[in-house]
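Tutorial handout. Part one gives the primary structure; part two gives the three-dimensional structure as tokens.
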Amino acid sequence: MAGKKLWSGRFSQGMHKAVEEFTVSLHFDHKLYTYDIQGSIAHCRMLARQKIIAAKDANTIISALKQIEIELAGGKLKLRPEFEDIHMLIESRLIEKVGPVGGKLHTARSRNDQIALDVSLYLRDAVANTIGLVDCAQKALLGLAEKNTDVVLPGFTHMQHAQPVLFAHHLMAYFEMLGRDRDRLEGCYVRVNRMPLGAGALAGTPHPIDREYVARLLGYPEVTRNSMDTVADRDTQLEYCSCAAIIMMHLSRLCEELIIWMTPEFQFVDIADAFCTGSSIMPQKKNPDVAELVRGKTGRVYGNLMSLLTLLKSLPLAYNRDLQEDKLALFDTVETVQSCLNIMALMLPEIKVNKDKMRAATQSGFLTATDLADYLVSKKVPFRTAHEVVGKVVAHCVKTDKSLWDLKLAELQQFSLVFKSDVIHCLTIDASVNSRTCTGGTGTAAVKKALAAARAGLNKRKKFN
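Part two.
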């Protein structure tokens, strides 16, 4: 049987060793030790201020907590499973250092609201750090786009050649995705930034605590408003994991394109050697492993979100021990999405763009067919009629193995007499790209305007906190 627990007064037997090993969470929740001590110090100061404990005792406790933090940081305080979780490890060490006075720290709080505070403090930092990494990834995308404003490649729908677009425009699509990701994280931060301590086990506390004072000490603008919701709520963890899953989806889509573009069939880009690996058997191989791993890690982040949703879906109020499992999914998600954002921000600026290969690819697939239809529309032909005419023109090109710009005016006029000599000008790749001058379009002027606006926006951003 295991040793005596701090909560063992009601029990006639000690905990079975197997149960101790089964229920322990210290091996993962020790990550929260700095937040646990930070919250405990604020709680202790409030207890003294409210005269719930003596100021002398509070000073003794706070001094010891700071020493314990140093011990944990230096690896001097061992993570032994009999301490069950990070709270019990710290409290046990506190009592060991200062005696019974250490037992006063837990007055007016429960491990239920204590862990809610620890995770809130952790997640508040995690959200802010993730926002900073999103900013770095956006800067990398923008920098690559700014260096390649004259590069044209086929735009795809259904993985088939559709219309020519600027490479910079293509990259900025991902910039916009990450911008929305940042917005979602900012909203998540607002909901994380509410102080939970003071909810007790589930019903609050009869002691004359001052939750708002603790909130001020910890930099929270407000406190949570319902004690039962406070200890049972895991919405912010879910929200962060949801935001992270969407970020990973965006990164995975970009990585998929980079992987495709690096193949010999495309040769649109070359990822720097520093971000690739070789084969243990085939000496010629250069594999885009970083991009593949980001794509692969996306599935794990999705799984973490689903794990949390499943964990919570049938839990009655208020706290249940099932909730111990939330931190595994949260910690892994935070570490994974942050590492992926970081590596992408490092890899993107080192990508070599093969301008000639991209341009050559625009010569197939009838990319200016829509421009030909738009030409007819500009001559007052109904769009559906124009669409049918150009469809027949394309079928003729397929049959005769010609490109649209190979056609003579006489050939085009076999399909419509509306075609005049000026039609030739709308069939070039550059004319097609630059005709799309509307806001959000791929025209050079529109893209340069978008790049300038994006750069100005990034320059105005301050470090998020």
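Part three, for discussion. The mean pLDDT is 95. The chain has three domains: 8-107, 116-152+168-204+226-360, 362-460.
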